[in-house]
Amino acid sequence: MAGRFDPLTRTASRGGRVDVPAPGRGPGQGGGKQRVWVSDGPLDLGLTLGPLRRGPGDPTFRVAPDGAVWKTARTPAGPATLRITGAGSGSGTGTGTGGATATAWGPGADWALDTLPALLGADDDPSAFTARHRLVHASHRRRPGLRLTRTGLVLESLIPTVLEQKVTSDEAYRAWRRLVRQYGEPAPGAAVPEGLHVMPCARTWALIPSWDWHKAGVDAKRSATIVRAARVAARLEEAAAMDLPAAAHRLEAVPGIGPWTSAETLQRSNGAADALTTGDLHLPGIVGYALAGDRDADDAAMLELLAPYAGQRHRAARLILLAGHTPPRRAPRMYRSDIGRI
Question: Where is the composition biased (Gly residues) (predicted)?
Fold first, then answer.
């Protein structure tokens, strides 16, 4: 729905949210462009943007000591660096009703600021969610600032998700760090934290030689999937504007991309509230244990338990994970292959 524009205050209201283009397109710190966006309800930057971080050493995402969130992106207009803080507060990761202040640098700065509301959950509708279990209700009540981010960028989420296929998180994070630092580029902007990078473009991903995939610990199956995706990147990026079934179909047309990978990608690129991750090693057991005391639940049992949350199953699963009610470990951790050391 189009917003209402007030020429006196120069603010546009969209569903109770206020966008402030003045000084929202004015100069920010260090020569960057700035925008202020005000939410109509609580906003927790840490919970909302946290899924975009791929491990503690992610070279594309950083939380500074002052609480500011730094994020890079390869936008359709070019590389961009975004610094986000809670509006009206010194903390970038806390919960509040002030929304956020963002400063952007680089050729993609305008694109990054234009899509800032979606990144912070403006397209999400938490009111559509109704808790059906006591644990989910308690988790939801404790996290009023949780919003589902929508980056609008498919490859940005798809590539690290493919790296996470059938390996430990540590292995995937190490591969992502190495490849982005080696083939990406330093983040544009002034006073950018040291080591912050923009991920490579699609053509660069497609041209990474086999030995560098190997050094990064990425097997031939995953690297081939990324190369195939990079070669049709323009078609995959179109999925960011599609509904969930069509977007999943578009991604899964690429060999090597299945329901697990498409769901994990579309949760971030499209803010898909119903993109439930199936085929996961741990999630069915966690959901089964939390909702029915069944630590041996499989995908079918998980789908049955989450059926009352149709349309919001990803949000429900996220709230269950945040509740921390997980079954006790009774098996060894997943074996770490680490082919990069062979």
Answer: 87-99
